[in-house]
Amino acid sequence: MAVCKADGDTAGHSCQPLAVAILNVGQGDSICLQTAISENYMIDGGKAKRGTVAGHRRGHGVTTLEAVILTHPDADHFAGLSTVFQDISTTSVIYNSEAKTTQAYQNSASESERQAFRTVIV
After folding, report:
1. In whole angstroms, what is the distance from residue 90 CA to residue 111 CA?
2. Sequential pLDDT tens for the chain (122 residues)
3. Which domains does the chain have, with CATH numbers?
4. What is the DSSP string of 5-49?
5. CA distances (Å), 1 to each of 16, 67, 98, in order?
6. Calpha distance 11→4 (Å, rounded)
7. Is the C-alpha dihedral spanning 118, 67, 95, 87 positive or negative?
């Protein structure tokens, strides 16, 4: 996969490779992206199975995430993020304004607040 200019004009421009890893987290999602300049992004964190997502990323040499993007606050998309936030340095968290009152959601939110990530609400 490659990333090219948004206008589609690649003449005279080089496209940059983009590595995409779609992790098997059972029900739910976790998609990891790595750019050509080794910037790492994660979309969702899957379920809260200890170390699944964070362990995969560390196993591939990832020590920092530029951003974690949470598509929505269902447990099968965010519960694994608590471990990610504890184990991998994260710069930003991007999510919508929807929230849940479950303990798992509160744990992830608390870890995000504790580490004072830059937060972007879309």
Report:
1. 11
2. 656 655 555 555 567 788 898 887 777 778 999 998 889 999 988 876 655 777 777 777 888 999 999 888 887 888 788 788 888 889 999 988 887 777 777 777 777 777 777 888 87
3. 16-121 (3.60.15.10)
4. -TTS--TT---EEEEEEE---SSS--EEEEETT--EEEE---S--
5. 9, 20, 31
6. 10
7. negative
